[in-house]
Design a protein that fits this description.
It contains four helices and six strands, in the order βββααβββαα. The chain is of the alpha+beta class. The protein has one domain: 2-Layer Sandwich (NE0471 N-terminal domain-like). A hairpin with a 3-residue loop joins strand 4 and strand 5.
Length: about 130
């Protein structure tokens, strides 16, 4: 199976999203927050255990750089710019966006965390 490489890549700053178009006619809009919390970087994936990303609701993409012929480096306004989004990984994020997003929301809920960067959750244990 060949790697699905986008035929169009558009950074949409106003909507804080990345638009990917493919030769088969499919087009996907990936919000910056979604891309940020699913970054392939060591900071997010951790060293053996993924690190839940919180407070990223208002994050924006500020730039895109091609990394060789196999990936994109995405630059976010929170300073995050590590992790290479391979063509395969971007396609997987695109086609599984709904289920991956729900899993993320469930993880936030279970952790008592939030997407809002202005809210801190404190748990008291009696």
């Amino acid at each position: 199976m060949t790697t699905p490489i986008p035929t169009t890549i558009r950074l949409q700053k106003a909507s804080r999203s990345l638009r990917l178009g493919y030769a088969d006619g499919n087009e996907y809009v990936l919000p910056a927050e979604y891309l940020r919390v699913h970054s392939p970087s060591a900071e997010v994936r951790g060293h053996g255990k993924p690190v839940l990303q919180t407070g990223k609701q208002h994050v924006a993409l500020t730039g895109i750089e091609q990394a060789g012929r196999y990936a994109l480096k995405l630059i976010f306004d929170d300073g995050h710019d590590t992790g290479l989004y391979t063509w395969d990984y971007l396609h997987e994020l695109a086609v599984n966006q709904e289920s991956r997003w729900q899993i993320y929301l469930d993880q936030l809920h279970k952790a008592g965390a939030t997407r809002d960067p202005h809210v801190s959750t404190v748990r008291f244990t009696p």
